[in-house]
């Protein structure tokens, strides 16, 4: 099976712009979670989607949003970018088994100038 | 609160064993996980342990769980230079809907 795919891998934006990141899960995985990784804050949970519904949300401002499509692919959007949004954005998918094991994609490295 | 704790650095000699420690927060967490991150890469699942187990062995990896103290450890036998990476422990608290809570990560440096 192909792994979790994230596009693009690298992105450079300027303050005030918006950005959309994409995550394609492993075939058969219906849950997609998003995480932000920064040197200062570490790995932080953004939100989780299952069957096109957001089930859980982390403590991030409303500028961070996401959605999931019927094929389980997910996108996250960050509007009005700030310098502090520079981070590695990781998505993880799971097949919903009892172990809740999540498999991560390679991430999208976002740099805000 | 949500605070998984790990020591930040560990340096070992090639061929020795490495032990990475973690203290987690929620004794109700069903599964506990270890992930590995190499530079510029995403997170690779190494292993997980069910909360009613004390130990799990998987090739060179041994996970020990002390549920009373909420302490988790990862032992890597015969550590190799390719094991140099950051290791994260993580838990999903009950009702977390796949919300992993991570520690800060332990940077393992393996030297000859």
Explain what the structure shows:
- The complex is a heterodimer of chains A (113) and B (112).
- Helices cover 0% and strands 53% of the residues of chain A.
- With 113 residues, chain A is mostly beta strands.
- Chain A has strands at 5-7, 10-13, 19-24, 31-38, 42-50, 53-57, 64-68, 74-78, 87-94, 103-104, 108-112.
- In chain A, strands 2, 4, 5, 6, 9, 10 and 11 form a seven-stranded mixed sheet that branches.
- Chain A has no helices and eleven strands.
- In chain B, the strands form two sheets. In chain B, strands 2, 4, 5, 9, 10 and 11 form a six-stranded mixed sheet that branches.
- Chain B is globular and about 45 Å long.
- The model of chain B has no long low-confidence stretch (mean pLDDT 91).
- Chains A and B meet through strand 4, strand 5, strand 9 and strand 10 of A and strand 4, strand 5 and strand 10 of B.
Topology:
The complex is a heterodimer of chains A (113) and B (112).
Chain A: E1 5-7, E2 10-13, E3 19-24, E4 31-38, E5 42-50, E6 53-57, E7 64-68, E8 74-78, E9 87-94, E10 103-104, E11 108-112
Parallel strand pairs in A: 2-11
Antiparallel strand pairs in A: 1-3, 3-8, 4-5, 4-9, 5-6, 7-8, 9-10, 9-11
Chain B: E1 5-6, E2 9-13, E3 18-23, E4 31-37, E5 43-50, E6 55-58, E7 61-66, E8 71-76, E9 85-91, E10 101-102, E11 106-111
Parallel strand pairs in B: 2-11
Antiparallel strand pairs in B: 1-3, 3-8, 4-5, 4-9, 6-7, 7-8, 9-10, 9-11
Summary keywords:
heterodimer; A: 113 residues; mainly beta; 4-stranded antiparallel beta sheet; 0% helix; globular; B: 112 residues; 5-stranded antiparallel beta sheet; 53% strand
Summarize the entry for a quick read.
The complex is a heterodimer of chains A (113) and B (112). Chain A has 113 residues and is mainly beta.
**Beta-strand content estimate of chain B:** over 45%
Tell me how many strands of chain A there are: 11
The number of E-state strands of chain B comes to 11
What is the helix fraction of residues of chain B, given as a range?
A: under 10%
């Amino acid at each position: 099976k192909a792994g979790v795919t994230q596009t693009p891998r690298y992105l450079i934006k300027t303050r005030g712009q918006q950005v959309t990141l994409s995550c394609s899960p492993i075939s058969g995985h219906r849950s997609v979670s998003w995480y932000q990784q920064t040197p200062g804050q570490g790995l932080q949970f953004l939100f989780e989607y299952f069957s096109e519904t957001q089930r859980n949300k982390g403590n991030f401002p409303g500028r961070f949003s996401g959605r999931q499509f019927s094929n389980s692919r997910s996108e996250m959007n960050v509007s009005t970018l700030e310098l502090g949004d520079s981070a590695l954005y990781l998505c993880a998918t799971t097949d919903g088994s009892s172990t809740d094991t999540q498999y991560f994609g390679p991430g999208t490295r976002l740099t805000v100038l | 609160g949500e605070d998984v704790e790990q020591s930040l650095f560990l340096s070992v000699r090639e061929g020795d064993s490495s032990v990475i420690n973690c203290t987690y927060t929620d004794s109700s967490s069903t599964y506990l996980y270890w992930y590995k991150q190499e530079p510029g890469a995403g997170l690779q699942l190494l292993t997980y342990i069910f909360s009613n187990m004390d130990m799990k062995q998987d090739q060179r990896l041994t996970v020990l769980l002390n549920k009373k103290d909420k302490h988790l450890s990862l032992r890597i036998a015969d550590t190799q230079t390719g094991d140099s990476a950051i290791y994260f422990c993580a838990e999903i608290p009950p009702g977390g809907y796949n919300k992993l809570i991570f520690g800060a990560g332990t940077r393992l440096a393996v030297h000859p």
